[in-house]
Protein backbone atom coordinates (compact mmCIF):
# COMPACT_ATOMS: atom_id res chain seq x y z
CA UNK A 1 0.00 0.00 0.00
CA UNK A 2 1.14 3.57 -0.67
CA UNK A 3 2.41 6.29 1.65
CA UNK A 4 -0.28 8.73 2.77
CA UNK A 5 0.43 12.10 4.36
CA UNK A 6 -2.38 13.73 6.34
CA UNK A 7 -2.23 17.46 7.00
CA UNK A 8 -4.29 19.93 9.01
CA UNK A 9 -3.48 23.58 8.27
CA UNK A 10 -6.18 25.03 10.50
CA UNK A 11 -6.07 25.90 14.19
CA UNK A 12 -3.70 23.43 15.88
CA UNK A 13 -1.97 22.53 12.61
CA UNK A 14 -0.53 19.02 12.41
CA UNK A 15 0.59 16.20 10.16
CA UNK A 16 0.64 12.42 10.15
CA UNK A 17 2.01 9.62 7.99
CA UNK A 18 0.46 6.24 7.20
CA UNK A 19 2.65 3.59 5.65
CA UNK A 20 1.00 0.41 4.35
CA UNK A 21 -2.21 1.43 6.08
CA UNK A 22 -0.60 1.88 9.51
CA UNK A 23 -0.15 5.17 11.32
CA UNK A 24 3.58 5.57 11.96
CA UNK A 25 3.92 9.24 12.90
CA UNK A 26 1.75 12.17 14.00
CA UNK A 27 2.98 15.52 15.32
CA UNK A 28 1.39 18.91 16.03
CA UNK A 29 3.10 21.97 14.57
CA UNK A 30 3.25 23.63 18.00
CA UNK A 31 5.70 20.99 19.25
CA UNK A 32 8.14 21.99 16.49
CA UNK A 33 7.66 25.75 16.38
CA UNK A 34 7.26 26.02 20.19
CA UNK A 35 4.28 28.36 19.61
CA UNK A 36 1.21 27.22 21.55
CA UNK A 37 -1.68 26.18 19.27
CA UNK A 38 0.35 27.12 16.19
CA UNK A 39 -1.70 26.93 13.02
CA UNK A 40 -3.57 28.66 10.22
CA UNK A 41 -0.78 27.76 7.83
CA UNK A 42 0.85 24.71 6.28
CA UNK A 43 2.48 22.69 9.10
CA UNK A 44 5.93 22.52 7.53
CA UNK A 45 7.75 21.52 10.70
CA UNK A 46 5.25 18.79 11.54
CA UNK A 47 5.34 17.43 7.98
CA UNK A 48 9.12 17.20 8.01
CA UNK A 49 9.19 15.67 11.48
CA UNK A 50 6.63 13.00 10.57
CA UNK A 51 8.50 12.12 7.41
CA UNK A 52 11.78 11.96 9.37
CA UNK A 53 10.20 9.61 11.93
CA UNK A 54 8.83 7.46 9.10
CA UNK A 55 12.19 7.48 7.32
CA UNK A 56 10.86 8.77 4.03
CA UNK A 57 11.31 11.87 1.86
CA UNK A 58 8.67 14.22 0.50
CA UNK A 59 9.24 12.78 -2.98
CA UNK A 60 8.14 9.37 -1.70
CA UNK A 61 4.68 10.55 -0.62
CA UNK A 62 2.00 9.10 -2.90
CA UNK A 63 -1.14 10.73 -1.50
CA UNK A 64 -1.96 13.77 0.62
CA UNK A 65 -5.21 14.16 2.58
CA UNK A 66 -6.35 17.56 3.78
CA UNK A 67 -9.35 19.52 5.03
CA UNK A 68 -10.33 22.85 3.45
CA UNK A 69 -7.70 24.70 5.43
CA UNK A 70 -5.06 27.38 4.82
CA UNK A 71 -2.96 27.35 1.67
CA UNK A 72 -0.47 30.00 0.57
CA UNK A 73 -2.18 32.63 -1.58
CA UNK A 74 0.26 31.98 -4.38
CA UNK A 75 -1.27 28.56 -4.97
CA UNK A 76 -4.81 29.90 -5.31
CA UNK A 77 -6.09 31.36 -8.59
CA UNK A 78 -9.52 32.96 -8.66
CA UNK A 79 -11.25 34.39 -11.73
CA UNK A 80 -11.89 38.13 -11.52
CA UNK A 81 -15.67 38.13 -10.81
CA UNK A 82 -15.36 35.40 -8.20
CA UNK A 83 -12.30 37.07 -6.68
CA UNK A 84 -14.37 40.15 -5.87
CA UNK A 85 -16.87 38.01 -3.99
CA UNK A 86 -14.20 36.05 -2.16
CA UNK A 87 -11.83 38.87 -1.31
CA UNK A 88 -13.22 39.18 2.21
CA UNK A 89 -12.29 35.55 2.86
CA UNK A 90 -8.63 36.24 2.24
CA UNK A 91 -6.12 37.52 4.79
CA UNK A 92 -6.07 41.32 5.19
CA UNK A 93 -3.66 43.08 2.88
CA UNK A 94 -3.81 40.61 0.02
CA UNK A 95 -4.20 42.64 -3.17
CA UNK A 96 -3.24 40.10 -5.79
CA UNK A 97 -3.31 36.32 -5.74
CA UNK A 98 -0.13 35.46 -7.53
CA UNK A 99 3.44 34.54 -6.68
CA UNK A 100 4.41 31.41 -4.79
CA UNK A 101 4.10 31.79 -1.01
CA UNK A 102 4.08 35.52 -0.47
CA UNK A 103 3.36 34.94 3.20
CA UNK A 104 -0.43 35.33 2.84
CA UNK A 105 -2.88 32.53 3.31
CA UNK A 106 -6.23 31.64 1.76
CA UNK A 107 -8.63 29.71 4.00
CA UNK A 108 -10.33 27.31 1.62
CA UNK A 109 -13.21 26.84 4.05
CA UNK A 110 -14.05 30.54 3.61
CA UNK A 111 -13.87 30.09 -0.16
CA UNK A 112 -16.22 27.13 0.22
CA UNK A 113 -18.70 29.21 2.19
CA UNK A 114 -18.64 32.00 -0.38
CA UNK A 115 -19.18 29.55 -3.21
CA UNK A 116 -22.26 28.30 -1.40
CA UNK A 117 -23.56 31.83 -0.83
CA UNK A 118 -23.20 32.67 -4.51
CA UNK A 119 -24.90 29.45 -5.58
CA UNK A 120 -21.81 28.15 -7.36
CA UNK A 121 -21.45 24.41 -7.84
CA UNK A 122 -17.66 24.73 -7.95
CA UNK A 123 -15.50 23.26 -5.22
CA UNK A 124 -12.76 25.28 -3.52
CA UNK A 125 -10.01 22.89 -4.62
CA UNK A 126 -10.79 23.81 -8.22
CA UNK A 127 -9.12 27.16 -7.53
CA UNK A 128 -6.00 25.57 -6.07
CA UNK A 129 -3.01 25.17 -8.40
CA UNK A 130 -2.20 21.67 -7.21
CA UNK A 131 0.87 21.09 -9.45
CA UNK A 132 2.37 24.39 -8.24
CA UNK A 133 1.68 23.46 -4.63
CA UNK A 134 3.20 19.99 -4.99
CA UNK A 135 6.29 21.21 -6.84
CA UNK A 136 7.00 24.14 -4.54
CA UNK A 137 6.47 22.03 -1.42
CA UNK A 138 8.89 19.33 -2.59
CA UNK A 139 6.38 16.60 -3.40
CA UNK A 140 6.12 14.68 -6.67
CA UNK A 141 3.89 16.50 -9.15
CA UNK A 142 2.02 13.23 -9.72
CA UNK A 143 1.20 12.83 -6.01
CA UNK A 144 -2.54 12.95 -5.37
CA UNK A 145 -4.02 15.69 -3.15
CA UNK A 146 -7.58 15.11 -1.95
CA UNK A 147 -9.84 17.06 0.38
CA UNK A 148 -12.25 15.79 3.02
CA UNK A 149 -14.95 17.42 5.11
CA UNK A 150 -13.92 18.69 8.55
CA UNK A 151 -16.58 16.93 10.62
CA UNK A 152 -16.45 13.77 8.53
CA UNK A 153 -12.74 13.63 9.38
CA UNK A 154 -13.59 13.95 13.08
CA UNK A 155 -16.14 11.15 12.72
CA UNK A 156 -13.78 8.85 10.82
CA UNK A 157 -11.01 9.05 13.44
CA UNK A 158 -13.46 8.40 16.28
CA UNK A 159 -15.13 5.43 14.60
CA UNK A 160 -11.93 3.91 13.21
CA UNK A 161 -10.09 3.87 16.54
CA UNK A 162 -13.02 3.15 18.84
CA UNK A 163 -12.78 -0.60 18.35
CA UNK A 164 -16.58 -0.79 18.13
CA UNK A 165 -18.41 -3.05 15.68
CA UNK A 166 -21.19 -0.47 15.59
CA UNK A 167 -21.76 2.77 17.42
CA UNK A 168 -23.28 6.22 17.49
CA UNK A 169 -20.78 8.83 16.31
CA UNK A 170 -21.10 12.44 17.52
CA UNK A 171 -18.84 15.33 16.49
CA UNK A 172 -18.97 18.86 17.93
CA UNK A 173 -16.82 22.00 17.88
CA UNK A 174 -17.04 25.72 17.15
CA UNK A 175 -17.60 25.19 13.45
CA UNK A 176 -16.27 23.21 10.53
CA UNK A 177 -17.07 23.32 6.83
CA UNK A 178 -20.27 25.08 5.75
CA UNK A 179 -20.86 26.41 9.30
CA UNK A 180 -21.41 22.87 10.60
CA UNK A 181 -20.72 22.64 14.33
CA UNK A 182 -22.33 19.30 15.14
CA UNK A 183 -23.05 15.98 13.45
CA UNK A 184 -24.72 12.80 14.64
CA UNK A 185 -24.46 9.56 12.74
CA UNK A 186 -23.85 5.85 12.96
CA UNK A 187 -21.00 3.50 12.14
CA UNK A 188 -21.88 -0.07 11.25
CA UNK A 189 -18.35 -1.40 11.12
CA UNK A 190 -18.00 -0.54 7.45
CA UNK A 191 -19.63 2.80 6.71
CA UNK A 192 -20.38 6.10 8.36
CA UNK A 193 -23.91 7.39 7.91
CA UNK A 194 -24.81 10.96 8.87
CA UNK A 195 -28.24 11.42 10.47
CA UNK A 196 -28.15 15.02 11.70
CA UNK A 197 -26.17 18.19 11.00
CA UNK A 198 -26.18 21.39 13.05
CA UNK A 199 -25.17 24.42 10.99
CA UNK A 200 -26.94 27.40 12.56
CA UNK A 201 -24.08 29.59 13.91
CA UNK A 202 -26.10 30.99 16.83
CA UNK A 203 -26.57 27.46 18.19
CA UNK A 204 -22.94 26.30 18.19
CA UNK A 205 -22.02 24.73 21.57
CA UNK A 206 -18.34 25.21 20.85
CA UNK A 207 -18.71 28.93 20.21
CA UNK A 208 -20.90 29.26 23.31
CA UNK A 209 -18.10 27.88 25.49
CA UNK A 210 -15.50 29.94 23.62
CA UNK A 211 -17.54 33.10 24.31
CA UNK A 212 -17.59 32.32 28.02
CA UNK A 213 -13.85 31.62 27.95
CA UNK A 214 -13.13 35.00 26.39
CA UNK A 215 -15.58 36.93 28.58
CA UNK A 216 -13.92 35.51 31.69
CA UNK A 217 -10.61 36.97 30.53
CA UNK A 218 -9.11 33.75 29.16
CA UNK A 219 -7.95 33.00 25.63
CA UNK A 220 -10.59 31.22 23.48
CA UNK A 221 -9.51 28.07 21.65
CA UNK A 222 -6.83 27.65 24.31
CA UNK A 223 -8.11 28.15 27.85
CA UNK A 224 -11.48 26.39 27.82
CA UNK A 225 -10.00 23.94 30.31
CA UNK A 226 -9.60 26.79 32.78
CA UNK A 227 -13.33 27.49 32.58
CA UNK A 228 -13.97 23.81 33.32
CA UNK A 229 -11.60 23.86 36.30
CA UNK A 230 -13.16 27.08 37.62
CA UNK A 231 -16.71 25.75 37.25
CA UNK A 232 -16.23 23.33 40.15
CA UNK A 233 -15.90 26.30 42.53
CA UNK A 234 -19.15 27.99 41.49
CA UNK A 235 -22.94 27.81 41.73
CA UNK A 236 -24.77 27.50 38.38
CA UNK A 237 -28.16 28.71 39.67
CA UNK A 238 -27.79 32.52 39.38
CA UNK A 239 -27.12 32.39 35.61
CA UNK A 240 -28.59 29.06 34.57
CA UNK A 241 -31.88 30.44 33.16
CA UNK A 242 -30.17 33.25 31.28
CA UNK A 243 -27.62 30.94 29.70
CA UNK A 244 -30.40 28.62 28.53
CA UNK A 245 -31.41 31.45 26.20
CA UNK A 246 -28.01 31.11 24.54
CA UNK A 247 -27.80 27.29 24.36
CA UNK A 248 -30.47 24.64 24.87
CA UNK A 249 -31.95 21.49 23.38
CA UNK A 250 -34.07 21.90 20.25
CA UNK A 251 -37.76 20.95 20.35
CA UNK A 252 -37.18 17.69 18.53
CA UNK A 253 -34.51 16.75 21.07
CA UNK A 254 -31.92 16.05 18.39
CA UNK A 255 -30.16 19.38 18.01
CA UNK A 256 -29.39 22.74 19.59
CA UNK A 257 -31.47 25.88 19.82
CA UNK A 258 -31.10 29.40 21.21
CA UNK A 259 -32.83 32.76 21.16
CA UNK A 260 -30.42 33.63 18.34
CA UNK A 261 -31.46 30.84 15.99
CA UNK A 262 -31.76 32.31 12.49
CA UNK A 263 -30.91 35.85 13.63
CA UNK A 264 -28.59 37.89 11.41
CA UNK A 265 -25.12 38.19 12.95
CA UNK A 266 -26.17 35.54 15.45
CA UNK A 267 -22.70 34.88 16.85
CA UNK A 268 -22.01 38.53 17.61
CA UNK A 269 -25.44 39.06 19.14
CA UNK A 270 -25.20 35.97 21.30
CA UNK A 271 -21.79 37.07 22.56
CA UNK A 272 -23.18 40.54 23.36
CA UNK A 273 -26.06 38.95 25.25
CA UNK A 274 -23.68 36.80 27.31
CA UNK A 275 -21.42 39.77 28.03
CA UNK A 276 -24.38 41.71 29.41
CA UNK A 277 -25.76 38.72 31.33
CA UNK A 278 -22.59 38.03 33.33
CA UNK A 279 -22.03 41.58 34.58
CA UNK A 280 -21.93 41.67 38.37
CA UNK A 281 -21.65 37.88 38.71
CA UNK A 282 -18.77 35.92 40.23
CA UNK A 283 -16.59 34.33 37.58
CA UNK A 284 -16.93 30.98 39.35
CA UNK A 285 -20.73 31.16 38.95
CA UNK A 286 -20.39 32.17 35.30
CA UNK A 287 -18.22 29.13 34.64
CA UNK A 288 -20.51 26.81 36.63
CA UNK A 289 -23.63 27.93 34.77
CA UNK A 290 -21.93 27.64 31.38
CA UNK A 291 -20.76 24.12 32.21
CA UNK A 292 -24.20 23.08 33.46
CA UNK A 293 -26.07 24.35 30.40
CA UNK A 294 -23.40 22.93 28.07
CA UNK A 295 -23.53 19.48 29.69
CA UNK A 296 -27.31 19.37 29.85
CA UNK A 297 -27.92 20.07 26.17
CA UNK A 298 -25.19 17.78 24.86
CA UNK A 299 -26.06 14.90 27.18
CA UNK A 300 -29.71 15.11 26.10
CA UNK A 301 -28.79 14.96 22.42
CA UNK A 302 -26.50 11.98 22.92
CA UNK A 303 -29.10 10.16 25.00
CA UNK A 304 -31.88 10.81 22.49
CA UNK A 305 -29.78 9.56 19.59
CA UNK A 306 -28.73 6.45 21.50
CA UNK A 307 -32.43 5.70 22.01
CA UNK A 308 -33.34 6.60 18.42
CA UNK A 309 -30.64 4.42 16.83
CA UNK A 310 -30.65 1.60 19.37
CA UNK A 311 -26.87 1.94 19.68
CA UNK A 312 -25.23 1.30 23.06
CA UNK A 313 -21.74 2.59 22.27
CA UNK A 314 -20.67 6.16 21.67
CA UNK A 315 -17.68 7.45 19.67
CA UNK A 316 -16.90 11.15 20.06
CA UNK A 317 -14.60 13.70 18.45
CA UNK A 318 -14.21 17.45 18.05
CA UNK A 319 -13.00 20.17 20.38
CA UNK A 320 -16.15 20.11 22.53
CA UNK A 321 -15.12 16.68 23.80
CA UNK A 322 -11.93 18.03 25.31
CA UNK A 323 -14.36 18.80 28.16
CA UNK A 324 -13.65 15.82 30.41
CA UNK A 325 -16.47 16.54 32.87
CA UNK A 326 -18.97 16.46 29.99
CA UNK A 327 -17.52 13.10 28.96
CA UNK A 328 -18.06 11.74 32.47
CA UNK A 329 -21.71 12.71 32.25
CA UNK A 330 -22.07 11.00 28.87
CA UNK A 331 -20.46 7.81 30.17
CA UNK A 332 -23.03 7.77 32.98
CA UNK A 333 -26.01 7.79 30.60
CA UNK A 334 -28.14 4.66 31.23
CA UNK A 335 -28.26 4.04 27.48
CA UNK A 336 -24.46 4.08 27.11
CA UNK A 337 -22.46 0.90 27.71
CA UNK A 338 -19.16 2.32 26.50
CA UNK A 339 -17.72 5.52 25.07
CA UNK A 340 -14.51 6.50 23.30
CA UNK A 341 -13.11 9.95 22.62
CA UNK A 342 -10.42 10.29 19.97
CA UNK A 343 -7.45 11.70 21.95
CA UNK A 344 -6.56 14.32 19.31
CA UNK A 345 -10.01 15.88 19.57
CA UNK A 346 -9.05 19.36 18.39
CA UNK A 347 -8.48 20.27 14.74
CA UNK A 348 -5.03 18.69 15.11
CA UNK A 349 -6.58 15.23 14.96
CA UNK A 350 -8.17 15.84 11.59
CA UNK A 351 -4.94 15.02 9.79
CA UNK A 352 -5.54 11.46 11.02
CA UNK A 353 -9.24 11.41 10.15
CA UNK A 354 -8.65 12.79 6.65
CA UNK A 355 -5.91 10.21 6.02
CA UNK A 356 -8.22 7.39 7.14
CA UNK A 357 -10.91 8.61 4.73
CA UNK A 358 -8.39 8.75 1.89
CA UNK A 359 -7.17 5.24 2.65
CA UNK A 360 -10.78 4.05 2.49
CA UNK A 361 -11.07 5.66 -0.96
CA UNK A 362 -7.86 4.04 -2.15
CA UNK A 363 -8.78 0.63 -0.78
CA UNK A 364 -12.56 0.21 -0.48
CA UNK A 365 -13.29 -1.58 2.75
CA UNK A 366 -10.22 -0.18 4.52
CA UNK A 367 -12.36 1.12 7.39
CA UNK A 368 -13.97 -2.27 7.93
CA UNK A 369 -10.80 -4.34 7.64
CA UNK A 370 -8.41 -2.16 9.64
CA UNK A 371 -10.50 -0.48 12.35
CA UNK A 372 -9.29 -1.31 15.84
CA UNK A 373 -9.28 -0.11 19.43
CA UNK A 374 -6.58 2.52 19.80
CA UNK A 375 -3.75 1.22 21.97
CA UNK A 376 -1.46 4.27 22.18
CA UNK A 377 -0.72 7.72 20.75
CA UNK A 378 3.07 7.60 21.03
CA UNK A 379 3.55 8.70 17.43
CA UNK A 380 6.01 11.58 17.84
CA UNK A 381 9.69 12.41 18.26
CA UNK A 382 11.85 9.71 19.90
CA UNK A 383 15.43 10.98 20.36
CA UNK A 384 18.34 8.57 20.35
CA UNK A 385 20.68 7.95 23.26
CA UNK A 386 23.43 9.91 21.50
CA UNK A 387 21.14 12.90 20.88
CA UNK A 388 20.18 13.00 24.55
CA UNK A 389 23.79 12.72 25.74
CA UNK A 390 24.97 15.42 23.35
CA UNK A 391 22.42 17.89 24.73
CA UNK A 392 23.27 17.10 28.36
CA UNK A 393 26.97 17.53 27.59
CA UNK A 394 26.37 20.77 25.71
CA UNK A 395 24.67 22.25 28.75
CA UNK A 396 27.26 20.93 31.19
CA UNK A 397 24.65 19.11 33.25
CA UNK A 398 25.60 16.52 35.86
CA UNK A 399 24.22 13.13 34.94
CA UNK A 400 24.53 9.41 35.41
CA UNK A 401 23.84 6.84 32.71
CA UNK A 402 22.26 3.89 34.48
CA UNK A 403 20.39 0.65 33.86
CA UNK A 404 16.74 1.58 33.43
CA UNK A 405 15.74 -0.16 36.66
CA UNK A 406 17.95 2.28 38.57
CA UNK A 407 16.37 5.26 36.77
CA UNK A 408 13.01 3.92 37.94
CA UNK A 409 14.29 3.48 41.50
CA UNK A 410 15.73 7.00 41.69
CA UNK A 411 12.55 8.50 40.24
CA UNK A 412 10.26 6.64 42.63
CA UNK A 413 12.43 7.52 45.63
CA UNK A 414 12.51 11.19 44.58
CA UNK A 415 8.72 11.32 44.35
CA UNK A 416 8.40 9.61 47.70
CA UNK A 417 10.64 12.37 49.07
CA UNK A 418 8.34 15.13 47.77
CA UNK A 419 10.40 16.01 44.70
CA UNK A 420 9.29 16.61 41.10
CA UNK A 421 10.71 14.50 38.29
CA UNK A 422 10.67 15.31 34.62
CA UNK A 423 9.85 11.95 33.03
CA UNK A 424 10.96 11.85 29.38
CA UNK A 425 10.81 8.42 27.77
CA UNK A 426 10.38 7.15 24.23
CA UNK A 427 8.18 8.70 21.56
CA UNK A 428 6.23 11.90 22.21
CA UNK A 429 2.45 11.69 22.65
CA UNK A 430 0.03 13.06 20.05
CA UNK A 431 -2.78 15.25 21.33
CA UNK A 432 -3.12 17.68 24.25
CA UNK A 433 -2.44 15.26 27.12
CA UNK A 434 0.86 14.15 28.60
CA UNK A 435 0.54 10.38 28.88
CA UNK A 436 3.71 9.31 30.60
CA UNK A 437 6.31 9.98 27.93
CA UNK A 438 6.53 13.77 28.37
CA UNK A 439 5.26 14.19 31.93
CA UNK A 440 6.20 15.92 35.17
CA UNK A 441 5.51 13.50 37.98
CA UNK A 442 5.27 13.77 41.76
CA UNK A 443 3.64 12.16 44.76
CA UNK A 444 -0.15 12.70 44.95
CA UNK A 445 -0.08 13.05 48.74
CA UNK A 446 0.84 16.73 49.22
CA UNK A 447 -2.29 18.87 49.39
CA UNK A 448 -0.27 22.08 48.96
CA UNK A 449 1.33 21.01 45.67
CA UNK A 450 -1.54 22.56 43.74
CA UNK A 451 -0.26 25.94 44.88
CA UNK A 452 3.51 25.59 44.80
CA UNK A 453 3.88 23.49 41.65
CA UNK A 454 1.48 25.69 39.70
CA UNK A 455 3.51 28.70 40.85
CA UNK A 456 6.69 27.00 39.70
CA UNK A 457 5.09 26.31 36.31
CA UNK A 458 3.41 29.75 36.11
CA UNK A 459 -0.01 28.14 35.81
CA UNK A 460 -3.43 29.04 37.18
CA UNK A 461 -3.78 27.96 40.80
CA UNK A 462 -7.23 26.36 40.46
CA UNK A 463 -6.25 23.94 37.70
CA UNK A 464 -6.17 20.37 39.04
CA UNK A 465 -3.42 17.84 38.40
CA UNK A 466 -4.13 14.38 37.00
CA UNK A 467 -3.36 10.94 38.45
CA UNK A 468 -1.60 8.34 36.31
CA UNK A 469 -3.02 5.15 37.79
CA UNK A 470 -2.09 1.50 37.40
CA UNK A 471 -4.98 0.14 35.33
CA UNK A 472 -5.48 -2.86 37.56
CA UNK A 473 -6.29 -0.57 40.52
CA UNK A 474 -8.77 1.69 38.70
CA UNK A 475 -11.91 0.20 40.24
CA UNK A 476 -10.39 0.44 43.71
CA UNK A 477 -9.85 4.20 43.41
CA UNK A 478 -12.63 5.50 41.10
CA UNK A 479 -16.40 5.13 40.79
CA UNK A 480 -18.07 3.81 37.62
CA UNK A 481 -14.95 3.10 35.60
CA UNK A 482 -16.25 0.60 33.06
CA UNK A 483 -18.05 2.70 30.41
CA UNK A 484 -15.03 4.97 29.98
CA UNK A 485 -12.25 2.49 30.72
CA UNK A 486 -10.74 2.72 27.23
CA UNK A 487 -11.19 6.50 27.10
CA UNK A 488 -9.41 6.85 30.43
CA UNK A 489 -6.24 5.35 28.97
CA UNK A 490 -5.91 8.70 27.17
CA UNK A 491 -6.98 10.99 30.04
CA UNK A 492 -10.16 12.11 28.26
CA UNK A 493 -12.70 11.61 31.07
CA UNK A 494 -13.14 12.36 34.76
CA UNK A 495 -14.40 10.02 37.49
CA UNK A 496 -15.62 10.51 41.01
CA UNK A 497 -12.86 9.48 43.41
CA UNK A 498 -13.99 7.07 46.11
CA UNK A 499 -14.33 8.80 49.48
CA UNK A 500 -11.72 6.67 51.21
CA UNK A 501 -9.08 7.93 48.76
CA UNK A 502 -9.73 11.67 49.08
CA UNK A 503 -7.36 12.12 52.01
CA UNK A 504 -4.76 9.73 50.66
CA UNK A 505 -4.34 11.47 47.27
CA UNK A 506 -5.45 15.09 47.83
CA UNK A 507 -3.07 16.50 45.20
CA UNK A 508 -5.06 14.93 42.36
CA UNK A 509 -8.64 15.24 43.64
CA UNK A 510 -10.42 18.36 42.42
CA UNK A 511 -12.67 20.41 44.68
CA UNK A 512 -15.74 18.58 43.31
CA UNK A 513 -14.32 15.17 44.25
CA UNK A 514 -13.38 14.18 40.70
CA UNK A 515 -10.10 13.28 39.03
CA UNK A 516 -9.02 12.96 35.40
CA UNK A 517 -6.98 9.77 35.46
CA UNK A 518 -4.79 8.09 32.92
CA UNK A 519 -5.14 4.34 33.29
CA UNK A 520 -1.69 2.91 32.62
CA UNK A 521 -1.48 -0.63 31.27
CA UNK A 522 1.69 -2.65 31.49
CA UNK A 523 1.36 -3.84 27.89
CA UNK A 524 0.82 -0.30 26.53
CA UNK A 525 3.53 1.64 28.37
CA UNK A 526 5.73 -0.79 30.31
CA UNK A 527 8.29 1.82 31.42
CA UNK A 528 5.73 4.16 32.93
CA UNK A 529 3.87 1.23 34.49
CA UNK A 530 7.12 0.02 36.05
CA UNK A 531 7.73 3.44 37.59
CA UNK A 532 4.23 3.73 39.09
CA UNK A 533 4.40 0.16 40.40
CA UNK A 534 7.69 0.91 42.14
CA UNK A 535 6.15 4.02 43.72
CA UNK A 536 3.21 1.86 44.86
CA UNK A 537 5.62 -0.52 46.55
CA UNK A 538 7.19 2.40 48.44
CA UNK A 539 4.01 4.27 49.33
CA UNK A 540 1.08 1.87 49.07
CA UNK A 541 -0.51 4.23 46.51
CA UNK A 542 -1.03 2.89 42.95
CA UNK A 543 -0.83 6.24 41.19
CA UNK A 544 1.35 9.31 40.73
CA UNK A 545 0.60 12.96 40.05
CA UNK A 546 1.07 13.63 36.33
CA UNK A 547 1.10 17.04 34.69
CA UNK A 548 2.25 17.96 31.21
CA UNK A 549 5.97 18.65 30.83
CA UNK A 550 5.76 22.38 30.08
CA UNK A 551 5.31 25.76 31.70
CA UNK A 552 2.26 27.94 31.17
CA UNK A 553 1.66 28.95 27.53
CA UNK A 554 4.43 26.67 26.28
CA UNK A 555 3.76 23.48 24.28
CA UNK A 556 4.66 20.16 25.86
CA UNK A 557 8.38 19.47 25.47
CA UNK A 558 9.45 17.68 22.32
CA UNK A 559 13.17 16.96 22.60
CA UNK A 560 16.09 16.90 25.04
CA UNK A 561 16.66 20.65 24.55
CA UNK A 562 13.34 21.68 26.13
CA UNK A 563 13.55 18.99 28.81
CA UNK A 564 17.03 20.08 29.89
CA UNK A 565 15.91 23.71 29.96
CA UNK A 566 13.19 22.82 32.45
CA UNK A 567 15.85 21.49 34.81
CA UNK A 568 18.06 24.53 34.31
CA UNK A 569 15.06 26.78 35.09
CA UNK A 570 14.34 24.73 38.25
CA UNK A 571 10.86 23.76 37.08
CA UNK A 572 11.75 20.20 38.06
CA UNK A 573 14.11 18.74 40.66
CA UNK A 574 15.38 15.85 38.55
CA UNK A 575 15.22 14.73 34.94
CA UNK A 576 14.79 11.07 34.00
CA UNK A 577 15.46 11.04 30.26
CA UNK A 578 16.05 7.69 28.64
CA UNK A 579 18.62 5.92 30.80
CA UNK A 580 20.05 9.20 32.07
CA UNK A 581 19.41 10.54 35.57
CA UNK A 582 20.09 14.26 35.68
CA UNK A 583 20.18 16.40 38.82
CA UNK A 584 21.60 19.73 39.89
CA UNK A 585 22.74 22.85 38.11
CA UNK A 586 25.20 22.92 35.19
CA UNK A 587 28.84 22.46 36.13
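-> sequence recovered:
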Amino acid sequence: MSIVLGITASHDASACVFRDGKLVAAVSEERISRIKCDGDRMPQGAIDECLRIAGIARKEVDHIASNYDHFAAGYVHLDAPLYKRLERAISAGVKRLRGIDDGKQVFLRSVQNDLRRTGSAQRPEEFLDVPAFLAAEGFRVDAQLRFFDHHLSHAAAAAFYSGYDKCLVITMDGEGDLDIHYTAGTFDGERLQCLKVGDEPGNSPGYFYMNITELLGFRPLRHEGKVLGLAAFGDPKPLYSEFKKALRLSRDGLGFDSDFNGVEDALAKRRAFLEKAIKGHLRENVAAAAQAVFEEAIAAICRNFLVKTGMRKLALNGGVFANVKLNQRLAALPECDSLFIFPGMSDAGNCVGAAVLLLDKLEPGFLAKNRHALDNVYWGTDPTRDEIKAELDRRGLKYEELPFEQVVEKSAQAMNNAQVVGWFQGAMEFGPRALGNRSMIAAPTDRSINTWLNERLERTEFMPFAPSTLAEYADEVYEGVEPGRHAAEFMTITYDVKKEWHERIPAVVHVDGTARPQLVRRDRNPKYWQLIERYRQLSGIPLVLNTSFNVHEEPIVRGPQEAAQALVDRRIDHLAIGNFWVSGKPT
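The chain has 22 helices and 24 strands.
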